[in-house]
Amino acid sequence: MILVPGLILFSGVTFAQVKPSAIYHEQWIDFNKNGKKDIFEDPAQTIDKRIENLLSLMTLDEKTNQMATLYGYKRVLKDELPNAGWKKQIWTDGIANIDEHLNSLPHHPEAKSKWSFPYSKHADALNQVQKWFVEETRMGIPVDFSNEGIHGLNHDRATPLPSPISIGSSWNKQLVRQAGQMVGREGKALGYTNIYAPILDVSRDPRWGRVVETYGEDPFLIAEMGKQMVLGIQENGIAATLKHFAAYSVPKGGRDGNARTDPHIAPRELHEIFLYPFRRVIQETNVKGVMSSYNDWDGMPVTGSAYFLTELLRNQYGFKGYVVSDSEAVEFLLTKHQVVSDYKGAVKMSVEAGLNVRTNFTPPEDFILPLRELVKEGKISMKTIDARVADVLRVKFEIGLFDHPYVNNTKGSDQIVHTKADEAFSMQLNRESLVLLKNTALAGGEKKVLPLDRKLIKNILVTGPLASASGFMESRYGPANTQIINVLDGIKAQAGNAINVSYAKGCDVVDATWPESEIIPTPLTTAEKASIDEAVKLAEQSDVIIAVVGEDEKRVGESLSRTGLGLPGRQFQLIQALQATGKPVVMVMINGQPLTINWENKYVAAILEAWFPSGQGGKAIAETLFGDYNPGGKLPLTFPKTMGQIELNFPYKKGSHNGQPGDGPNGYGNTAVVGALYPFGYGLSYTTFKYSNLKVSPPAQNDQGDIEITLDITNTGAIKGDEVVQLYLKDMVSSVTTYQSVLRGFDRIRLLPGETKPVKFTLHPDDLAILDKDMNWTVEPGIFKVLVGSSSEDIRLTKEFTIKSTAK
Length: 808
Hints:
Blueprint: E1 2-4, E2 7-10, E3 13-16, E4 24-25, E5 28-29, H1 47-57, H2 60-65, E6 69-71, E7 97-99, H3 119-136, E8 144-148, H4 164-170, H5 173-190, E9 194-196, H6 219-234, E10 239-245, H7 267-274, H8 276-285, E11 289-292, E12 296-297, E13 300-301, H9 306-316, E14 322-325, H10 329-335, H11 343-353, H12 365-376, H13 382-398, H14 420-432, E15 435-439, E16 459-463, H15 487-495, E17 500-504, H16 526-540, E18 544-550, H17 571-579, E19 585-590, H18 598-603, E20 606-609, H19 617-625, E21 689-697, E22 700-701, E23 707-715, E24 721-731, E25 742-751, E26 756-763, H20 765-768, E27 770-771, E28 777-778, E29 782-789, E30 795-803
Parallel strand pairs: 6-7, 7-8, 8-9, 9-10, 10-11, 11-14, 16-17, 16-18, 18-19, 19-20, 22-30
Antiparallel strand pairs: 1-2, 2-3, 4-5, 12-13, 15-20, 21-23, 23-26, 24-25, 24-29, 27-28, 29-30
């Protein structure tokens, strides 16, 4: 260690204008300031020994403080940086984590901080906070700095990513791994040590507002994407925390907001669908964190359930990290679920169930003080406290906080966060998330409406309430203050000077009485009619109409579940009026959940699903419309035709999606629409693909052996394109009812015109396993059918193999 007046150097970390401290030594830090190297301070010791030693030196107050979150600046914490008053606060004995500190969220203007940017300034600020906890608390236990990261890092001017439902539509595991690496790299450079991502909730009810924040409806797709995100984040030496465990995404009736309870999930479905992504990601990534949800399941509030937080997470899945509650999950045991008579009862129930760290937008002492009382009253054992705190400390040791608690080279953070390469990567992820839903031929020929032909088009009308909007490109859980290219500006730039682009809004996102107008229609007002008429007049003078419609950030998201899934407000009337002009209508959809666009699908010329892109979304959409990019995304969930079909998902149990006529002895009548508007895995391209040469080896295998599947994919069109090759598996006969088929592999392949590439998948025993009648995972003998294709319904090749019976 080199000491200079006013400057201390330790492990490459530079602090200016601070007093030198004697606690920093070569290769170790004297956290408890006793002048000797204790076992917990010795990097050469095992983590288990370090934890055991540290626990033996901690007081009850210090232990209980490692079981609560301190929300950052202007959420709970009133100060940007440490001051003398902190010695009088409860965190003078340390704290588990500080969440969202100094990140300057756009949705919380009062939280704006001068320390959020430049990036180096924020890294310096968190170093100062960390330094206070290391040097000014008795035990010097470092803080875990947590932050959100599902849309990119939740920080001022970090690199934005499109919404998770967009990322799910890319079906590109390599890009998701890169996204995780980027989020983790930026987080670490800014001083964060724990990223709350990914969300592994399975979206089975399209009414639910947070569909936009998930990877889709299929547990295998979600597990594969979530696994790559966790691996990418944690490659940077920081933690990732999975959200929201468990059974969170299907509240009764899709109701969010103040409801968020009573999911109707059968036990087998709970494990095969909703817990499957968590089980796999935990077992395959050594993820450091899990966030417990505030809903119940079968009468058990998850955050108060030892079955969920201990039996499943730790005993069955092998989770070794720490469980942090979603905000207010502990309080809901009392206020919502009413399974305890007072708040101390909620604290006791959650801690004994397995909760490690409580989070809420209230001071940490609200939880810590009653927790201490419970221990002193003999109602919670010290053994339980030690076990919960040990989990928190283990994560802190594993991510290196006891060896390198500070950001190295804070000035270098300005060259690490939101680079040009990151911007280019984000742009590519925006492109690959776009899904072409419809593309019809122009009148009098085979040429399709899309891509737009610059040689044939002189005038374009861009209309719709979301064409010039931008709010949907930012997220409460993503970066703030990002640069944005809206769809209108993107089209103008892509069109160039040779094409005239006109614009009329057409209508607002919603009308004055929405959502009531979804059940009690009202006539157009004079102003609404005039706005649509303006768009129609310009449409009549145009060669093509691009209508940008759907939902904005006020219509879908957390607490924003819907009771209707059509285009909100007057947007449907706008589309009908535009279609009546006889000009080709290209509908660009901005939305966060599947919409029931039956009329639109039947009549408009082309539909491009854009979901909620990030700031460069307008450019990515425009490139795709003009053919400078060929869309290759696939839907990560099913689009129902009507709300009356819900639930309509993939995977589905055999026979559960059958129609009426001829289906069995009572299969008569014609009273319901059947089938999906767009099935899971669906998406078109500007080119075409041929599947061939499917091989399955071996044709017969024992129940613990692997099955190899190979095929060839060929681009039979005239332009370069991506195809997502999808592998489905059907268990032909099973001891319990299983799914019609399940997704068990996918690969996004880029092909030049005429190019052929081989594709290989390997099925492992777990891919064949089902929960038998005794609820045990097992691979049953029998015939399995491999189905390979372009969607769950567009199957191009099939072949069977047999799992041999092991009976003697």
